[in-house]
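Today's session is about reading a structure prediction critically. Students often jump straight to the picture, but the first step is always the sequence itself: look for stretches that repeat, for charged clusters, for runs of hydrophobic residues. Only then move on to the predicted structure, which in these notes is written as discrete structure tokens rather than atom positions. Here is the chain we will use throughout the hour.
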Amino acid sequence: MASLKDLRARIGSVKSTRKITSAMKMVAAAKLRRAETRAAAARPYADAMRRMLAEVARSVAGEGGQPALLTGTGQDKVHLLVPMSSDRGLAGAFNSNINRTTRNLVLKLQSEGKTVKILPVGRKTYDFLSRDFSDLIIDHRHLAAGKEIPFSAAAELGEQITSLLEKGEFDVCTLVYNQFRNVMTQTPTEMQLIPLALPDNDNADNAQVAAYEFEPDEGTLLSSLLPRNLQVQIYATMLETAAGENGARMTAMDNATRNAGKAIDRLTLKYNRTRQTNITNELIEIISGAQAV
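Below is the predicted structure for this chain, in token form.
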């Protein structure tokens, strides 16, 4: 049985842990408000740009000379996966969900005879994937840290992906990230970046496809819009990842704080019972000695 000194030390240790987790929860909550605001502001712009380019893609379907960012290479042999996680842990299952989703996707593509290449963004997913798929990783990047994620981080990643496409390094590019729903829920999501994924249109049979007139010509316009769209989609997912990370960390630290409080209650109860037992034993010894005299 643990001594009173050991129990006091354990209670003090758990109390210190509770202070740390409580402070981390408050910090994550403050960061979450800013990150959630930025993610919500970027989401409508990214969705509108994706819908607009989808309509443009439908209007020019069947025409030759379309950009590779729009139509891809025309093959489906080499897949580039871009999983996005956080650089830090202590965020519950936030990073492990991305790692598991990416791993399952890699195994699925390999079972279909596809060649897979991985460009992880975030230290946690890089550390995980480098253990099992180190030969598939072509490069890695850290998720931009700080109060705000600069658009330049997404622009650099977009330029790297575009450069790999121009060199013929892959045919299909898929981004894997956690879509921020609320503080409690972040959903692992797969978004196909290249070729441009057309959203489902339930009324496609009855609706008329909009006709577009390009000024300047289609090639010049699309060559400008498609790289920008790629960067915008990547930036939006970075903001979603940042918001999801802080939400998951706030939830995890709240649970840790609650569990620490329960542990303190259990240890305090055990401490009081042990102390009472020691006092009772000492009284019995004193009474027994007095009776013997």
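Discussion point for the tutorial: DSSP finds six helices and four strands in the chain.
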